[in-house]
Specification:
Elements (H helix, E strand, L loop, with lengths): L10 E5 L4 H12 L3 E6 L2 H12 L7 E5 L5 H15 L4 E4 L15 H22 L10 E5 L12 H21 L5 E7 L5 H14 L3 H12 L9 H12 L10 E4 L9
Parallel strand pairs: 1-2, 1-4, 2-3, 4-5, 5-6, 6-7
Helix pairs in contact: 1-8, 3-4, 4-5, 6-7
Subcellular location: Secreted, Cell wall
Pfam families: adh_short_C2
Protein name: 3-oxoacyl-[acyl-carrier-protein] reductase MabA
């Protein structure tokens, strides 16, 4: 088991858990002792991801579920299934969101923005509303929303993503206020540039186009954005941050956003 926060006996749900940050967060929770259900829309992908997560961990530790965060009925059924699986639900990580093509916000199609809100912001709200009746009220209940550095930093050509992520930050604060009466904490993480498989593929494509290495492409991004730690994040580092917020070590933290961006954002207050 990984060192750090102990989640033994906890049951977690991660949306968008078949790949990218969702997969890494599910892995971090699993390594710290939690039983983890992962949700995705693609049956083959979510089952394959569950198989990779369960490798060496025991076949009863991961539950793959096919569900769509844009469908309230689908989400309610998924939450009931997770609760029935272990008889409890302690942790919900809202991660599922759309992959958006970069563009200036003034050039973005309104339908793209509407769809992004429906999938991410409203998807997070649908999952949270469905989860609240199931989440433990003994102090272990926790919701972690995955926002993003674009909520805080105007990175070029990410306006639509930034607007949606900023709305997730606001949602986190309101949910934290309302869930506190049930002894449930709600926080968010805002990852920066992270070496997920999606970004690695984009780096490789850009490297071929520009006759550079992928490492040179990433170094250029680091320099251009002024990332203070001088590198991209490893997915496991994002997973660890989510696991921390879900753990007892964060028992007095709610309504907050943890910026896991290597110093990309530079607030002074």
């Amino acid at each position: 088991m990984a060192s750090g926060w102990n989640l033994d006996g906890r049951t977690a749900l991660v949306t968008g858990g078949s790949r990218g940050l969702g997969f890494s967060i599910a892995q971090a929770l699993l390594e710290r002792g939690a039983k983890v259900a992962i949700i995705a829309r693609d049956d083959a992908a979510v089952k394959a991801a569950a198989g990779r997560l369960d490798s060496g961990a025991g076949a009863q530790n991961v539950l793959p579920i096919v569900a769509d965060v844009a469908d309230s009925d689908s989400i309610h059924e998924a939450l009931a299934q997770v609760h029935e699986w272990q008889g409890r639900l302690d942790i919900v990580v809202n991660n599922a969101g759309p992959q958006l093509a970069p563009s200036p916000v003034t050039d973005a199609d309104e339908n793209v923005l509407t769809s992004a809100f429906d999938t991410k912001l409203l998807g997070f709200l649908r999952v949270s509303k469905a989860a609240l009746p199931f989440l433990s009220q003994d102090g272990t209940g926790s919701i972690v929303n995955v926002a993003g550095a674009t909520a805080h930093v105007p990175i070029p050509n990410t306006g639509v993503t930034g607007i949606v992520n900023a709305s997730v930050v606001a949602l986190t604060s309101f949910l934290a206020t309302e869930a506190a009466a049930k002894n449930i904490r709600v926080n968010a993480i805002s990852p920066g540039m992270t070496k997920t498989e999606g970004w690695l593929a984009k780096n490789d494509a850009a490297a071929q186009q520009q006759d550079k290495t992928a490492d040179e492409i990433r170094a250029g991004v680091v320099q251009g954005l002024g990332i203070r730690l001088g590198r991209w994040a490893e997915p496991a580092e994002i997973g660890a941050a989510a696991a921390f917020l879900a753990s007892d070590d964060a028992s007095y933290i709610t309504g907050q956003v943890l910026r896991v961006d290597g110093g990309l954002s530079k607030p002074v207050a």
